[in-house]
Each structure stands twice: as C-alpha cells, then as structure tokens.
Amino acid sequence: MAGMETESATGEHGYSPDKDAYIKRLRRIEGQVRGLQRMIDDDTYCIDVLTQVSAITKALQSVAVGLVGQHMKHCVANAATNDPEHLDEMVGEATKAIERLLRS
Amino acid sequence: MAGMETESATGEHGYSPDKDAYIKRLRRIEGQVRGLQRMIDDDTYCIDVLTQVSAITKALQSVAVGLVGQHMKHCVANAATNDPEHLDEMVGEATKAIERLLRS
Amino acid sequence: MAGMETESATGEHGYSPDKDAYIKRLRRIEGQVRGLQRMIDDDTYCIDVLTQVSAITKALQSVAVGLVGQHMKHCVANAATNDPEHLDEMVGEATKAIERLLRS
Amino acid sequence: MAGMETESATGEHGYSPDKDAYIKRLRRIEGQVRGLQRMIDDDTYCIDVLTQVSAITKALQSVAVGLVGQHMKHCVANAATNDPEHLDEMVGEATKAIERLLRS
Fold this sequence. Notes:
homotetramer, elongated, disordered N terminus
C-alpha cells in the first residue's frame, strides 16, 4: 500500500525532495521577522513597518502555495492512483487547509 | 509643529507606548517560524505544516491590524487636528498599506 | 455638534460625495457575478471560473479599501477634531472592520 | 482518452454535478451585491457597508474553495490516473489559481 505509507506520519511527503530549499526560505523569513523587531525597537514609521509585514506575509503564503502544489502533485495524485477510497478524505483536508489560508 | 514631529523618521509613533508588547509578539512569531523549519526537517505531514503557516500568517496580520489602529488613533487623528494640510497624504499612505495587507 | 451628526445613521458619510461612482462600480461587480453564473451554466473550465472569482474579489476589496480611506479621512478625522471622546470607539470599529476584510 | 475529454473546453467538469447549487449560491451573492448598492444609496454607515462587503467576499471565496476541491477530486485525480504526462501542467495551473485567490 504505497499510497498509505507515503502519507504516514513519519514518511516522505510531496515537499521532501525540496526540504532544503523550503528550510532556506523559512530561515530568510525568520530573519525578516527579526528585522521587524528591530524596526519597532528603532521607532520606524508605522507605514514602513506595515510594508514589511506585508512582505513577510507574502513570503509565507508563497511557501504555503508551494506546499499545496506539491501536496496535489504527490499525495492527491498518489491517492487517486493507489488508494482511491481515501481520495475524498485527502481532497477534503486539502481544501480545508486552503480555506484556512484564505481566512488568514 | 507637534503633528510633523510625531511623524518624523526618528520620533515616537502610534505604537511606541506598546513597543515591548509588539516585540514580544514578534519574538513568538519568530519562534513559530523556527518551529516550521523543524516541522519540514522532520517530514511532518503537509497539511499540518499548512495549518501552522496559517496560524503564523494570522498572528502577523493581527500585529498589522494593531499597528493600523494605532496609526489611525495617533497619526491620522493628530494630522486632522494639528496638520490638516497633510491629512490627505497620511490617509492615502495608510489606505495603500491596508491594500498591500489585503493583497498579501 | 457637526461631528456627531456626520455619523448619525441617516446622515452624510465619508463616501457620500462619491456615491454614484461606488454604485456604478458595484453595478459592474453585480454584472460580473451574473457572468460567473453563465460561466458555470456553460461548463466553463474550473480554472477560468476561479480566475473570474479572483477578479471579482479584487474589485470588491478595492471598493472596501476606498470606503476605509474615506472613513479615515472624514469620520476618524472629524472625531479627532470635533468629538475626541468618541475617537477610540470610532478607531476601534474601523480596525475591527479591517480585520474582517483581512479574514475574508 | 477520458482524462483529456473531461478537461476539454466544452465538456463536463468537476463542479458540473453541482451546477445548480453553485448557480443558486451565486444568485444569492448577486442579490447581496445589489443590497450593497442600496446601502450606499441610503447613506448607510460606512462600517456597516464594510461588514457587508466582508460577508460577500467570504461567500465568494467559499464558492472558490468548493471549485478548487472539486477540481482536485476530479481533474487532478483524473489526470493522475489517465493522463499522467499532463499532471504537472494541471497542478501548476491549479496552484496558480490558488495563488490568485490568496492575492485577491
């Protein structure tokens, strides 16, 4: 049952081959959040702080979109081929995740 | 010209009295971004990673909303009272900042 | 008490001078929503339907940003000048409205 | 080649079996947009207009999330099973659609 193993808690996931790239992007985002703390500590003008918050949010959303794409390409596609009785469940949790992203 | 000084690059801003609280919130967000890196490094299931991205985005947007509110209460209100000829400009940049938040 | 009258339920509001322009924009959005119904009725490809949904959402958000800007310029600024004891309340409801926009 | 036909410009799509329900939801949204025009025409308080804009945006996004889910369940899953060489392309356009929704 390759399909189920693929989605086990400890196994490989859609994004796994790009793990290093994702961690690198998140490290950059972490640095941007630290930069935001300095901006506030330095009494930077509110509007410039807000511009930076938008940039970080955009970077985070872009990571999320990448993960959603790889989830579709690997996990959803894999369920369709190898594990069709779990396809509905898998699509259901993916759409709920997209809904949470849209609400945040 | 209190109105103009308030908005100088180095002066006090609407959020200044709450600086410590904002920095504390951003430090927590920084920790959440580090947690995200660990989740990816540990091959956490994509959907759980996405849930965490949504939580961080929500926390960041909440910081942004707080800053916008204090910007209105202090900077916009101050311009209205002490510096009316700059009110249009100030409201214009605040609405552009809100637009950027909505687009991110 | 010009400040209070301006915000009465039946009075003039920040957007009132641009009423016709707003109604015109909303009529166009209404037409776009009708177009969406035709797209679905014609079995248009899902992705093209989604592109149209994004366009409508963007148009609606742009109306909202315009209203927020005029609310700041007129209602918030007016409260700051003529009705300072209600400024907090007015800014509070404006930030809550922005928060709802970000969550939608 | 069922997979390709399913995605032809004129054929059935993931949402087709729920066409009537989608059109009904969009008709309700159309009515809400008309209600918004009346609110502005009646000089309704800006914040109440904004609350209504948020409600409409939420309803539209919810339609979009439904379409994305059915796109995954039918078109993506179908490509995975019957048309694997187009899977990348199909996932690519779906993620771009989600990105546009997040930016709007």
